[in-house]
Amino acid sequence: MANSIDISAKLKKEPIKIKLTEDKEYEVDNSAETFVIVQDKLKDKEFSIDVMYEVIEILMGKDALKEIKDMKLSVNGIESVIIGLMAAINEISYEEMEKRFPKQ
Fold first, then answer.
1. How many angstroms separate the first and last alpha carbons of the chain?
2. Sign of the CA dihedral running 79, 97, 89, 34
3. Nearest Cα to 54, choosing from 37, 70, 71?
4. CA 95 to chain centre
5. What is the SS3 assignment for 89?
6. Which of these, 50, 53, 54, 59, has the minimum number of CB atoms within 10 Å of its CB?
7. How far, CA to CA in Å, does 64 sit from each of 8, 20, 57, 103?
8. Looking at 1-104, which runs of residues are DSSP E strands?
9. How many CA atoms lie within 13 A of 45 on its CB side?
10. Which residues contact 102 (CB under 8 A, 6 or more apart)?
11. Is-contact 39 55, C-beta < 8 A?
12. 21-56 tens-digit pLDDT
C-alpha cells in the first residue's frame, strides 16, 4: 500500500511585506536562497550601517533601499528595519526577533 503525505499547503508561499510608514509597504524576499545570501553577508562581518544597507537591498531591492536612505532614519531606525526584515525571513514576530537581536 502506497502512503502519500500531502505537504502542499505547507509549501504555499504567501508574500511577506514590511510596512515602514502608512503609505510605504514593501515585499520581502524570504526565499531560502536569499536567506543563505544574507547569512553569508553577515558571517564574520562587523554589523555596520553599510552591511545593514546591503541586507536591506538584498531583501527589499534597490528602490526600497533608496527610499529608506531618503527617509534619513537614525541608527536605531535602521536597526528596527533590519529586525523587521530578519523577523520576516525567519517567519517569526518582530518582538521575538528583537529578543534575539544582538545589542549594540
1. 57
2. positive
3. 37
4. 14
5. helix
6. 50
7. 32, 10, 7, 25
8. 16-21, 24-28
9. 14
10. 47
11. no
12. 899 999 999 999 999 999 888 887 777 889 999 999
How many whole angstroms separate alpha carbon 96 and alpha carbon 60? 21
| Residue pair 101/83 in contact by the 8 Å Cβ criterion | yes
Cα 81 to Cα 1, 10, 98: the distances in Å are 51, 27, 11
Q: So what's the pLDDT on residue 104?
A: 58
Whether 1 has a pLDDT exceeding 70, the answer reads no
Reported as a single tens digit per residue, the pLDDT across 76-102 is 999 999 999 999 998 899 999 999 877
The grid coordinates listed for 68 are 529608506
Structure-block grid coordinates of residue 43: 558571517
Q: Residue 59 to residues 18, 25, 26, 86: CA-CA distances in angstroms?
A: 11, 13, 10, 9
Centroid of chain to Cα 76: 16
13 forms beta bridges with none
